[in-house]
Structure formats: structure tokens, C-alpha cells
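On clarity, I found the account of how folds are encoded harder to follow than it need be. For illustration, here is how one protein appears when written out as sequence plus C-alpha cells:

:::
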Amino acid sequence: MNTSNALRRAHGFTILQMVITIVIVGIVSTFALLGINSTRASLRLQNSVRQLAGYLEKARLDAVRRHANSSVVFTSTTTYDVTMDFDGSGTVSTRTLPFEGGVNIVSTPLPSVTFNWRGRTSACTFTFAVQNSGGEQSWVDVSDAGDVTINSNVDVLPTATYATVNSGADVQSSTIVTGSNVHNNTLDCAGTSGGAGPPVSGGGPECTDTANPSSISIRKNGGGSADVTVTATNTGTIVVAAPINLRVTPSTQTVTAGSTDHFSITSQNNTRGTFAVNFGSPCTTLTVLVTVTN
């Protein structure tokens, strides 16, 4: 009896036990690897957005210091040009800076922010979104006053109490500012937000497909939806392509020549900005610009 038990113990693990152990280790390793990749993608997104926000702030301060324009202009979905005096020598230069791997702009059109001598911009609020390879998104706001925020609402005014000012006793009417230079003090903000633009469309001589309206506005995170009507010239299928933060229903639609079909667009998260939704019809691609607001 003792010899039999000793022999069984000496056999070690069976092949089935070893296979089960290897499978369990493989599953745990796979989930660990997925978690690491997701974390790395998130860090790359955060680093890219923080670097962008930092250069926006530097460009704004440089414009105020030099009393001249500085700018941050995207040349592609993954790179942007910063034009400013980088070393304080008075010489303006342009540097091209990239996002980290897998990070890109998803807003339409590509952002272009210019700060004037007062550190202000030409639009009331620029809002654009950035996305990593895992679909995680972050957005940046640049207000008319040049304030830069990440994942916040810079255009929401706080509640403030205003004091009554006596024009006779509290305001000095004979104030004189010395200096010979004259700056343009006209209104910077024209009342429209940056990021909007004309719709992109295509087609041939016999293609008269239309999407109406060509630009719409909806509230973030399911706060509302908007309808788009597409009229197709030819029989076929309309295929919709949209960024991950927008849901378009239906995503595909079989159409007949001359038919009019309706699509509903809804925001799925808090990401704000202007995004392109493409409707691939049988003879062309129609682009509708969707602005997601508060």
C-alpha cells in the first residue's frame, strides 16, 4: 500500500493537469497584456494632449510678450506647427511637433489657433477632440481670451456679482496712456466658434446626391439628436462612417434611385468639437459636419 501511494506521488502532474495550467496562465497573461496596452494608449493620449496644451499656453504668452502673433497650426491629424519665439532671443521660428504613437485629431477641419498681441484668438471658442488607438477621447478648449482647458467647458461663464460703478466718482476721465504705437483694438470674437467649415462632397455629371442639412449641432452625451436626409441618385447602399463618439442610425441603408432616406445622429459621450460624418452613397461621398456642444 505504501509503495503504491509513493509511486502515484512520483508520477507528478498528468498531461491534462498541465494543459489546464498552461491555458489558465495563457488567459491571465492575455488579460494582463491587454490591460498594459490599454494603459499605455491612455498615457500616450494624456501626454500628447498635455504637451499640446502646454504649447498653446506658451504661444499665447509669447504673443503677449512680443506684442505680435503666435500660432499653433495642425498640418495633419498627428502633427502641428508651433510658430513663436522659443528662446526669448526675438527670433520667431516654427517647430513641427508630433503626437505620440496611435494618437490623432478626430475633429474637422484641422485646428488652427492664432494668438494676437493681447493673447486672444479670433473665435469665441475653439474646441477639438483627440483620440488614441483604443478609442479613448479627450478634448481641448481654447477660449477667446486664450484660456486653455482639457476636458472642461471653458465657454461656460461662472456666476459673478457685479458692483455698481459711479462714473463721476469712481472713473478717472483724464487717464492718459503714453506710447506711440497704435494697436488694433477691435472686437476679436466674431460670435462663432472655431472648427466649423463647409461640407465636403463629390460626384460626377450625373450624380446629384445631397445631404440635408450639411452641418448640424447636437448636445453631448445623448442630450439630443439630429436628423439628416440623404437623397440618392442611383440604386444601391449608403454606408455611414462616423467617429466613435457619434452614433448614426441606421449605419447602412439600401436605397433606390431618387429615394429620400433619414439618418439620426446622437452623441455617445462628453467629447465636444466638430466632426465629419461621411455618407457613402452609390455614386459619391457626402460629408455632414456635426458640432457637439454642451
